[in-house]
Design goal:
Layout lengths: L5 E3 L2 E3 L6 E6 L4 E7 L3 H20 L2 H17 L1 H12 L3 H22 L7 E4 L3 E4 L7 E5 L5 H14 L3 E5 L6 H13 L6 E3 L4 H10 L5 E5 L2 H11 L5 E5 L4 E5 L5 H13 L9 E6 L4 H13 L14 H5 L10
Parallel strand pairs: 7-8, 7-10, 8-9, 10-11, 12-13
Antiparallel strand pairs: 1-2, 3-4, 5-6
Length: 336
């Protein structure tokens, strides 16, 4: 059985504890790989590697950093099928969905932020005739990036790519529920020759690895996507340390349907926003408010549409909503 490894200092490493966790595929409930049960010692090793890499990486020109990130983007595109299959095994989403959205978007994340840094600018304001007021944008240091399981590589790269593009080094923790695509990203980084220590990926549990990243005094910026209660705990730890903090937490998004809406479009959009990716997306419409005049009509039509949906195996090519993606109209609902 394959054992996933941490990516630290440009190389793959076993967890220092020697312990592993079972990695289940939810479609069958079976263990198909093992992931490191890392802890504070592994995080410290990753921080050390990032600190050593930071001076050289932060002083590279934006153009040279772009070269590395574009190489990673191209490799993700080349390995689309392997990455999509790994994601499907990890979190049970339909294979076609991983191929259509998640993996292509991960490649786009690296491409977008790499090229954006080539066009970075700063405003300058005149202070009368005496001075000019301007802002210098410099790398902060090490970014701690903690990502969720619902869009494993998509959201993981959304945190990593801008941090690397702007000259920071990264210590990242993917969800312990969906570690495989992050592991494959480690191998891609080795393939393209990303300088050692620039990106470090430490696998493990939140209360061990995530907490160690959050608490580490040499990680001045934290980006976390996940549950609200975990976000509250991170904020409590980070605030007294004056860390820069980005939290994307849980919510209850409403769909609001007015009587003068395009009924068919509102119905189709509500169906997609409620059930796409099993409803496990940050923009999921988990509540529906319908104006009284069309309430019964909409309710009955929505229930009828929902009853037609079936739960199926993620490898089934006839899974619900596939036709939407085949026609490329998915871009309207999942903008790139």
């Amino acid at each position: 059985m394959e054992k996933i490894e941490n990516y630290i200092g440009g190389e793959l490493h076993k967890p220092l504890s020697g312990k592993y966790l079972d990695n289940y595929t939810p479609a069958t409930g079976k263990v198909y790989s093992l992931l490191p049960d890392s802890d504070q010692k592994d995080v410290q090793k990753a921080v050390k590697a990032a600190k050593e890499a930071f001076p050289k990486w932060s002083s590279l020109s934006a153009e040279k950093r772009l070269g590395y990130l574009m190489a990673i983007s191209l490799k993700i595109e080349e390995q689309l099928d392997e990455l999509a299959l790994a994601e499907t095994k990890d979190n049970g989403k339909p294979l076609w969905l991983s191929k259509a959205v998640d993996i292509p978007r991960a490649a786009s994340n690296f491409k977008f932020y790499a090229t954006a840094m080539m066009h970075d600018k700063t405003d300058c304001f005149e202070m009368g005739d005496e001075a000019l007021n301007y802002t210098l944008r410099k790398p902060i240091g090490i970014a701690g990036c903690i990502s969720p399981w619902n869009l494993p590589l998509y959201l993981f790269t959304w945190k990593i790519a801008p941090a690397l593009a702007s000259g920071n080094c990264v210590v990242a923790k993917p969800s312990e529920v969906t570690p495989m695509t992050a592991y494959l990203l480690s191998k891609i980084c080795i393939e393209v020759g990303l300088p050692k220590g620039v990106l470090n990926i430490v696998h493990g549990l939140g209360h061990k690895v995530g907490a160690a990243i959050t608490e580490h005094p040499e990680i001045p910026v934290i980006s976390f996507t996940g549950g609200t209660s975990t976000g509250q705990q991170i904020a409590k730890v980070a605030a007294p340390m004056f860390k820069k903090l980005s939290l994307e937490l849980g919510g209850k998004n409403p769909n609001i349907i007015f009587a003068d809406c395009d009924f068919d479009d509102a119905l189709a959009t509500t169906k997609r926003s409620s059930f796409a990716n099993q409803g496990q997306i940050c923009l999921c419409g988990s509540r529906i408010f319908v104006q009284r005049a069309i309430y019964k009509k909409f309710r009955d039509a929505f229930v009828a549409q929902t009853k037609k949906m079936v739960v199926g195996h993620p490898m089934d090519k006839k899974q619900n909503l596939e036709r939407l993606y085949q026609k490329n109209t998915w871009k309207k609902y999942f903008p790139m």
